[in-house]
Amino acid sequence: MLSPLLFASGLATLLTPSDAAETVLGAYIFHRHGDRSAKSTPPTSLTTLGYQQVYTSGQYYRSRYVNGSSQIKDLSSDSVKLSQLSVTAPVDNVLQSSAMGFLQGLYPPVDTVQTLGNGTKVEAPLNGYQLIPVNTIDAGTGSEDNGWLQDASGCQNAKWSSNKYFESSEYQELLSGTKDFYKKLLPVVKNTFEENDVTFKNAYVVYDLLNVAKIHNSSIPSSEILTDAIFAQTRTLADAHEWGLAYNSSDNMRAVTGMQLAGEILKYMNNTIASGQAGKTSNKLGVQFGAYATFMSFFGLANMPKVNADFMGMPDYASSMVFELFTDSEVKDGEFPASKDLQVRFLFHNGTASASSEPEVYPLFGSSSKSLSWEDFSDGLNKFAILTTEEWCNKCGNKDGPCAAYAETAASTQADNGSKGSGHGMSAAVGGVIGAMITLAVVLGSLAAVMLLGGLRLVPKRVLVRPEVTEKA
Asked: What are the angstrom distances between the C-alpha of 289 and each of 22, 39, 85, 208, 292?
């Protein structure tokens, strides 16, 4: 588990921000939603606690980037300038509500009274509540109502890859080795799950139900069974389960959401640089809300477990990771540094960030450096980032919807190449079969290390297992 105290070790001391004078030029935040109701009792909704969590996080990032010592250069500190801020979330009640709550903390109301031409004074509603749009994205739609979060990715090959986890020896051993453990939990969860569903296959949704109950319920059925040690073990098992579904070093296709995030980060920060070098002050702060498996997929792709094995755990509610674009070079008003003078650092905070519990800096891509040059950072992300719809379609093997046009183009190109060749060209159908068989040969990465950690605490959310659960009323 990624506990709030998780990375507060010697590494944190090593990786504190530089004392050297620097200028922050832009940032991109990927944020998890706040506390919500259980997935096993849909539709899910953001709780009052969850609202408070994301609002508090928004206040913290306001104090850091909007009007604090690390203020992003030229970012408006009072009334929002929409050209400087981009906020996105999937079409999902919990994630969109979380984004709105975060924005209320990031840009709170401004007491605005407008005087019209005839002298009439108009007072802004809600003491100047700032209306900031949350743009919707397709990826992750319905994430928090889905027990199987790869359904929210829409990527066929990612679903196939994640399903291969259920055929792995690691999964089979955990499934058989934890039968007695889950059987003991039946009296606690029998009002929601059928007996056959309370197994390691549904490790996440079982844990999620228990976690929500411990936070919100004054009493739990057969509570004497759910000791702290037993609850911790449900988290550990859920963590191993979700890591196996979110990332595999031998078949990174299941980490498609991390690839998409990498592409979004690159595109936004490239726009920050391009607009700055063109003398504009747009694209300063990007904020995206998403589900926990995207964190895990990105952590795997960026080799974060090399820094700390706890990056294999699920991040808690309202967790955030940040990519800061900055320079140590002097920046005069109206100027923007050359690309060679730009650097990027990565920060992560498990749970709600606040003035008393701030994000820590960690090295990316298995390096030991607390910051990377822009070139090294972009090169690192480009190794796995998905940047275009066509690239996503090709990787995912999707051929309908927005991918239909690319599928037709690919088929046409293949036909043309075949007609010009010697007659031994590979057909699209045969190529697809061979490609699938090659993929089938990929060896899944071992999760044994995770399980050896035993009591290692994990954090809540994101089910990537299709929980075939029959819920009771």
From this structure: 28, 18, 14, 20, 10
Sorted by where each starts, the structural domains of the chain and their CATH numbers stand as 1-108+128-398+446-473 (3.40.50.1240), 401-440 (no CATH)
What are 325's strand-pairing partners? 26, 344
Max CA pair span of the chain: 83
Place of tokens 């453990």: 181
Query: pLDDT per residue over 37-54, tens digit each?
Result: 999 988 999 999 999 999
R_g of the chain, CA atoms, integer Å: 24
Each residue's pLDDT tens digit, 95-105: 999 999 999 99
Task: Tell me if 317 sits within 8 A of 35, measured CB to CB.
Answer: yes
Peptide linkage before 17 cis (omega within 30 of 0): no
pLDDT at 436 over 60: no
Nearest residue to 92 via CA among 51, 41, 152:
152
Which amino acid, one-letter code, is at 101? Answer: G
**Cβ neighbours of 301 (radius 10 Å):** 24
**Phi–psi pair at 23, nearest 5 degrees:** -125, 125
Separation between Cα atoms, residue 192 and residue 201, nearest integer Å:
16
In this structure, what are the phi and psi dihedrals at residue 288, rounded to the nearest 5 degrees?
Answer: -130, 130
What is the DSSP secondary-structure string of 253-267?
A: GGGHHHHHHHHHHHH
Take residue 220 and report the two structure tokens written for it: 């739990």
**H-helix or E-strand containing 47?**
none
Which amino acid, 285? Answer: L
The closest alpha carbon to 246, from 296, 204, 208, belongs to 296
What is the CB neighbour count within 10 angstroms for residue 421? 10
Q: Give the closest residue to 289 by CA, choosing from 139, 406, 155.
A: 139
Supply the pTM of this predicted model.
0.82
Specify the 3-state DSSP secondary structure of 123: strand
For 287, the 3-state DSSP assignment is: strand
Please state, in angstroms and rounded to a whole number, the distance separating the CA atoms of residues 351 and 318.
5
